[in-house]
C-alpha cells in the first residue's frame, strides 16, 4: 500500500506528526508549515527529515499546493479568534485569514485530499469560520463528523476540551456518523455514568449530583454559571472554593477510569527546585491556584502562559502530600505576610515541568527540546499544542 502523503499545516512543535506516528497509519509528512521560528526549531529537532516551510500559509500558491500532491491535511489553525476568553473576532480577526485562504484553495486543487482533520478550541463550533468550513467540505463532497473531546475520555488526568473535525472524501457516511451532532465521546465509547458517590466530610451529603461539564475545568471558567461570581448559596469554604467545586474535584479524584498524575511525573531531584513557586506568586495568587497532588486524577488545561502567569493557566503540584490544604488556608488572611509565606511553603508547591506536560499531552519519551529553547518558550509551545493520543485515535477513525 502506498504511503498516505500528509500535509501538516500550523505544525507548531509537531503534535499532529506525533499523533500520525502513533496511529500506525502507513504515512509520511511530506511538508509541515508554520511561521513561528522557535516552534520550527523544536519541530526540526524532533523530525529532522521532514520538509519544514517557515512561511505563512497564505504565502503558498495554488501551484505549490498542487505540486505537493497530498492525500491528507492535518491542521490546528490559530485559536485566539474563537476562545471564550478572547474577543472572538472570528472571521474579522486577521489570524483567521490563513484558514479562509485554505478554504478558498481547497475546491480549486487539482486533486482533493482524501482526509482532513481540524483541531481548534471549544467555541469554534459556534463560529462563522466553522460554518464556512462545513460549507466548503459539503461543496467538495466530503463526509464529516465533529467532536468535542478532552484527554480525560482516554483516562488521562488532564482537561483540554477541544473541537475536532474529521472529514473523508467518500459518498457514504462514516459508520458512526451522527449528522447534525457534535460527539462528546469517541464512537467506541459509551457516555460515562454519572458518579453519585459525592462527599467530603462535613459537607452537605444529600444533593443529587451530576458531574459538572468538562467545560468548567477549563482555566478561568470560574463558577458554574460562567459569571465568575459565586451565588449567595455557594459560600466559599476556604481557598475561595465552593462546596460544588470541592465536590467536583473530589468526584474526579475518585474516578478510577482516570490515571493518577504520578504516572506522568518526573523523578524528584535537585533540579526540581527551579520549578517551585516563587514567594511573590505564592503570596499573591495562592487563593486562585488549582492545587493537585500526585495521587489526584485531574489537572486543568495547561495554556501558553503557564509557568509565567499564575492565574488560570494550569494546575500546580503540591509535593507535600500529607499537608491538608484546609489546615493551610483556614484563617490564613489573619496572618502577617511572613507567617502566611511560612504556612504556604509547607505545601511545597511547584509547577509541572515541560516534560511532565509533554507526558500528559502524550508526546513520546524521545520528544525533546533543543537546549537553547528557554523554559518560557517550552511552556508556551506546549500550551499551544495538543493531546497526541486524542488525535491519534481520531486519525484511526478517519482512515479505518
Ligand atoms: C494552535 S498552534 C498549532 C500547534 C501545533 N498543532 C502543535 O502541535 O504544536 C497554531 C500554530 O499556527 C502558526 N500560525 C499561525 N498563523 C499562521 C500562518 N498564517 N501561517 C503559518 N503558520 C501560522 C503559529 O505559529 C502556531 O505555531
From TrEMBL:
Q: Which GO terms describe its molecular function?
A: methyltransferase activity
User: What are the catalytic residues?
Assistant: 79
Keyword Zinc-finger appears in the UniProt entry: no
Which BP terms does GO give this entry? Answer: methylation
Q: GO cellular component terms?
A: nucleus
According to the lineage, what is the superkingdom?
A: Eukaryota
Q: Which Pfam families match?
A: DNA_methylase
Q: What is its EC number?
A: 2.1.1.204
Q: What segment(s) does the record annotate as region Disordered?
A: 210-230
Q: Enumerate the UniProt keywords alphabetically.
A: Methyltransferase, S-adenosyl-L-methionine, Transferase
Which family does the UniProt entry place this protein in? Belongs to the class I-like SAM-binding methyltransferase superfamily. C5-methyltransferase family.
**NCBIfam families registered for this protein in UniProt:** dcm (TIGR00675)
Name the UniProt record assigns to this protein: tRNA (cytosine(38)-C(5))-methyltransferase
Q: Which organism is it from?
A: Pelusios castaneus
The organism's taxonomic lineage, starting at the top: Eukaryota, Metazoa, Chordata, Craniata, Vertebrata
